[in-house]
# Entry
Amino acid sequence: MMHVSRGFSIAVVGFVSFVMLASARPALADEGAPHMDNRARAQQLFDSALADAEAGNLASACPKFLASQEADPKTSTLLNLAACYEKNGQTASAWGAYREAEGLARKISRSDWESTARARAEALEPKLMKLTIQVPEPSRVSGLMVMRDGAHIAVGEWGVGIPVDPGEHVVTATAPGHAPWESRVSVRETMGTVAVPVLELLPPAQIEPAVTPPPDRPLVPGSWWTPMRTTGVVVAGVGVVGLVAGTILGLAAKRSYDDAFARCNNGAAGCPADAVSDADSAYAKANGATVVFVAGACFAAGGAALILLSPSAAPRSGATTVSRPSASLRVGPGSIGLSGRW
# Structure
């Protein structure tokens, strides 16, 4: 098919026919300058719509004219869209498109297009079918939303006859806490009317209940046995055991040394060999006792510091049962063991 730019002319011979200007139409400044990608897409859609219209496939041609107009708005394309609607029997859509094209043609000083659009719109006015959506006062509940064919109907349109294309139209109404309502209306006469009824209230079970926060629980004082204090008590206990053990070992070492020294005549020079050996053993025991005593003192001091410096436990919410910490100390030959839970 020969490429045709998007010009417009129509001839009325029983039906509106699609005859395009063969010569290129110069672009008009006030019709905008869209991106070149959009312009190419609009031209391709226009050419395809024209081919469908010439083949009599108006159901496919009209949406393509509309898509071309949305991609690259031009008065000429809008006039072709209006003519397509008119020939397809969509009187309200055709009338609206002609009226819009009339205003746009006036802006770009195309008096021929303006007069053609005005004449076609005036010719369609006696054929227009109107649908009135009545919303009685009892039906106007809070949050009411009325729609026709998926488009919102403003409050100002309630009770007003609005031009619609012939055929079936779906009218719906919704409101919070109410069951939705829907009606299918077939408009074949000059005037159609549909009334929105009082919407049925939803049962309480179908309405989401408000979420109630749980009541505040009383605060319970925190336990004195914090992990830090428990550790301090255990460490201090180990220190006390060390102090006691060091004292006992020191006393035993002194007794052994005194017994060995008592067997000596004329001071250390007169000590027998067994007395010297027992004295050396007692000296070693004394050194061990000193180490154990000093370690016990360090552990006791560290445990006391942990107990005194431990912060108090924060109050707890509710009466939740909390297990108390516990610890046990095991002392054996040559070893000291600590186990517990906190």
